[in-house]
Amino acid sequence: MAEIERVGVVGAGLMGSGIAEVNARAGLRVTVAEVGDSAVEAGRSRIRGSLDRGVERGKISADDRGAAWDNIGFTTSLADLGDRDLVIEAAAEDEDIKTRVFGELDEAVGGSEAVLASNTSSIPIAKLAAATQRPQHVIGMHFFNPVPVLKLVELVPSLLTSAETVQRVTDFATDRLGKESIRAQDRSGFVVNALLVPYLLSAIRMVEAGTAAAEDIDNGMVLGCAHPMGPLRLADMVGLDTVKAIADSMYAEYKDPNCAAPPLLQRMVDAGLWGKKSGQGFYSYT
Ligand code: 3HC
């Protein structure tokens, strides 16, 4: 089976741009697909900014930044990903959008042995695989934000993923990307979000109940439990729209009230207060 050398990334948002950067830094040729020119421009400057930060922090040399940058191309057509060995979908956390993307990617890669992976946090991989004619080559490959900094990738085979695909992607994640992988079953939230999201929702319920202010809750977990950041700042960083989308998927799967999005979260999402990406969430980023 061919080595994975050419990678496609669908979506250049927070996660997609980080995934593209990590692949390009590992020497892979990356094509990033976005829906239009302004989304391409936003993704381009996000990746550029992160590569610059990597140089400022002494994590990569200026030469490596140049090489990584040269490895990345952009397109607005999924059909341009037809020659890829691996495509990692990182579109919005919305089942309809992801299913449509998988259908189009399936057509684009045709009868090749390409792997189609999803960075979904909570949507069943089996549903995405069912949108294709190649479910044996479909797998969950879930990265963590900020992708260039955090070492983990969750690998999530569906009931139909072949053992060969699992091995191929495991080797790729560790040997080529230098990540650590864990394996999880195809259950909403997998391992990390199944534990993390109820915790974030509990913190939001605490704000809602007036138990403590956001800053005090966050300081409690940073200073009292040595977490790198508190749950409300973390929810802002992940994006409150994304937190709600993951909570909704987990609630649909488990019917567990701990996974139900509290009204405050729903209203903040309705109001466009999506956290860091919109400039305002539990904190202000202007
Ligand atoms: N490239 C490479 N390295 C970089 C970098 C870049 N672009 N930007 C920063 N770094 C490095 C820094 O050099 C530093 O490395 P060091 O520890 O060796 O010195 C390290 O990353 C930390 O960077 P900073 O000093 O800028 O920032 P902080 O120390 O304040 O840490 C943080 C920021 C990494 C975001 C930290 O607060 C953190 O880890 N927070 C928790 C994040 C988390 O939990 N993420 C998971 C979210 S859940 C998710 O993603 C799943 C999804 O489905 C919802």
TrEMBL record:
GO terms for biological process: fatty acid beta-oxidation. GO terms for molecular function: 3-hydroxybutyryl-CoA dehydrogenase activity; NAD+ binding. InterPro entries: 3-OHacyl-CoA_DH, 3-OHacyl-CoA_DH_NAD-bd, 3HC_DH_C, 6-PGluconate_DH-like_C_sf, 6PGD_dom2, NAD(P)-bd_dom_sf. Residues 7-186 form the 3-hydroxyacyl-CoA dehydrogenase NAD binding domain. It comes from the Bacteria. Pathway: Lipid metabolism; butanoate metabolism. This is 3-hydroxybutyryl-CoA dehydrogenase. It comes from Halosaccharopolyspora lacisalsi.
